[in-house]
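Researcher: Go.
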Amino acid sequence: MLLLGLTAIPYSTIESYSDEDQERAALVLHSAQDVEDAVMVHQSAKVAKDVIDNALKCLTTKNQVVFKERLLIDEPKKLQELADYYGVKKQRIYQMEKESFSKVSKHVTEALV
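Model: Structure:
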C-alpha cells in the first residue's frame, strides 16, 4: 500500500485497470514512491546536519575550522595549508583534527542513541 497524502492506495487496485491504465497507474505510484523517498532522504540529511552542527559546538572555534576544512568539504585543505594559516606545525593540525573528530563522534553517537 502506498500513502499519498492522507489517501492509501492498495496496489491490488491496479489489477482491475486496462493494460494501458495499469501502466499509467504503476508509473504514478512509482513516481509517488520516488517523491516519498526523496522527501525522506532530505529530512534525514537535515537531521544529520543538525546533529553535526550541535556536535561542533563542543569544539573551540579553531578546532571547528580545522574539522570543517579537513573533513566536511569536498576538497579538504592540506595539513600544511592550515598549519601555515595558524602558524603551527602540520602535526599540531593533525592532532587537532583527531581530537575534534573524537569529540564530534562522541556527541553524534550520544545524540542518535
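Model: The longest strand covers residues 2-4.
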